[in-house]
Amino acid sequence: MSGLLTAAPPARPVDGVALTVVIVIFVAVAVLGFLAARWRRGSAPEGLKSLDEWGLGGRGFGSWVTWFLLGGDLYTAYTFIAVPAAMWSTGAVSGFFAVPYTVVLYPIVFLLMARLWSVSHRHGFVTPADFVGGRYGSRTLSLVIAVTGIVATMPYIALQLVGIKAVLTVLGIGGGGNAFLQDLPLIIAFVVLAAYTYTAGLRAPALIAVVKDLLIYLAVVVAIIYLPLHFGGFGAIFGAASAKLSATNPATGLPTGSVIPAAQSFNAYWTLALGSAMALFMYPHSITGVLATRSRNTIRRNAVVLPLYSLMLGFLALLGYVAIKAGTKPIDVNGAVNPQLVVPQLFLDNFPSWFAGVALAAIAVGALVPAAIMSIAASNLFTRNIYRDFLKRDADPASQARVSKLVSLLVKFGALIFVIGMDQSSAINLQLLGGIWILQTFPAIVAGLYTRWFHHWALVAGWAVGILYGTIVAYTVVNPVTHAHFGGSIAPAPLLGTPVYIGITAFVLNLLVSAVLTLVLRALHVADGRDLTRASDYGADEHDPKVEALEARGDDDRPPVTLPSA
Amino acid sequence: MSDEPPTRAPGRPGPYVVVGVLLLIGIAVPLMVPVYARAEPSLIGLPFFYWYQMLWVFLDAGLLWICYAIVRREDRRRREAVQDPEARKAGHR
């Protein structure tokens, strides 16, 4: 702790033991990542020469693997860093909403994802945009979904790097004057990640997720039992948090935050939770995790047991308050306060070096798992819905896999440049926008699972209105302290005036436009796209024949599955 | 519309209505903020606001477990109905 309290940029001491533990775990994980190429390969040829093999791990993950994979995919390192950081700086409304968010998430997953699995299994869909394209017979709508997915995922990958950076900073690496040397550890970590993702595809993060989740559970369980006992119990911790958060913020003249939300933030709180829950499984990396499962009910079984991660997230959020009581000082290399360092610093200050090393490694590895899955999901979207649909219509599975592997490298390289070259806060702003944007694909994807009522041009228009509205309103939110734009994701709802999550307002607008325009377009008899799916597809299970097989048998009078022109 | 061969027989509304209501409870009740935005009664120093929301992790898991049991049972019935030729004829639209 000494040296961190001085005002001058402190040279952070390097904790040799913790650093060694982190490096050892990182190397072990990298080896595991490369070995994963041969894991559960079955009869598939060497080299993972199709997207089903490379991008979806052979579409055969059972309940256990899926639990770890989705746990690692949804509860990212950035969450582990950002949620306690938000609790530490402003309290419940911006931090603890993550708990109801990840609770109401699972009824939604239970309801929707089995149907999406079935129809995707029958038709060999790899991405959500594949499904939308097949359902509505519109390449434009499919392109819109794909581009939204890619654009929303990129800053999310960049934020995983921010998570690794927080760990490295606390470990005392990344000081120094030389910009290149400062970022070298981050670059090495990402090059290794890119290499084993290229080699092993989705199998790498699936296998690594097992290690990462066990480490994270260990770290959180030990911390949540030991730290409160050490700091005088939760009563004392909440006392300290309440004192800090009720202090007046000199910039606004209002309290800094709140331990229990006041009545005026109720709507913000629940709309943030609901909107985030609706958005999460529209992200391509979540759907990749779902489509990689073996059978229709794997995801439903997982919806029953995945909430265990939400409990862990709740405890992790509380560590933000523990850090207030513990007097943790999250001072960055430039001497400024950086709330994102709160949790890594808390572990380093209060645990033996080796255990802090395990916890920090868990966060760093926790960044690698979702970063790998996100880059795979984004490159699958590019390959299937841009490359195959628009550039090379006859791309065979092997060339699709080849393109996807190369694009996954590009995606990671882009994220790296983003984090190194740009201000960290722009990555956070973009991720905030990404959440609002991805929520605008909800009507097309989810309504499509149940009905073909919406017209595809109406859905495109609704999407455009939602994106435009969400972006403009998010821009007008000004941070009261820094006066920067994109100051948050909450703004007064039109007509109601009460502050709510911008994503939800944009979503409601999107849905209204889609519905009204559908009525108009139907009245004008504007041609609709061809639906390539059938009612029976939505209940299909693993042993039901795929559409290709049905066509070969002559059971089906429909044309083969290729998307007609938009 | 040619829908051949069906993967499942038509569903009965009962089980799906029950599951729908349970899922709606699992989504709506944890979002009723005025119910739990209070400090008391606290549990081992945790204000009600915090432990109540974390309790919902277990309640939601329980609800979903019941939903899973119901849906799986109905799904099996629908599949077996299609595998039997007589029922298949009945289930075919």
Structure notes:
The complex is a heterodimer of chains A (566) and B (93). Chain A has a domain at 53-423: Sodium/glucose cotransporter. Chain A is 68% helix and 1% strand. Chain A contains 23 helices and two strands. Chain A has a two-stranded antiparallel ribbon. Chain A is globular and about 65 Å long. The N and C termini of chain A lie far apart (62 Å). Chain B is mostly helical. Chain B has one domain. In chain B, 68% of the residues lie in helices and 0% in strands. Chain B has four helices and no strands. In chain B, helix 1 (13-28) packs antiparallel against helix 3 (48-83). Chain B is elongated. At the A-B interface, helix 6, helix 11, helix 12, helix 14 and helix 15 of A face helix 1 and helix 3 of B.
Can you describe this structure in just a few lines?
The complex is a heterodimer of chains A (566) and B (93). By secondary structure, chain A is mainly alpha-helical.
Helix/strand/pairing category of chain B: mainly alpha
> Any guess at the CATH architecture of the domain at 53-423 in chain A?
Up-down Bundle
CATH topology (level 3) name of the domain at 53-423 in chain A: Sodium/glucose cotransporter
Largest sheet of chain B: none
Q: Given the structure, what is the number of helices of chain A? A: 23
- Strand portion of chain B, in percent? under 5%
Q: Quick one: how many beta strands of chain B?
A: 0
Number of strand elements of chain A: 2
Number of domains of chain B: 1
Radius of gyration of chain B: 20 Å
Residue share in β-strands of chain A: under 5%
Can you count the helices of chain B? 4
Question: Mean of the pLDDT scores of chain A?
Answer: 85
Query: How much helicity do the residues of chain B have?
Result: 55-70%
Shape of chain A: globular
CATH class of the domain at 53-423 in chain A: Mainly Alpha
Structural class of chain A: mainly alpha
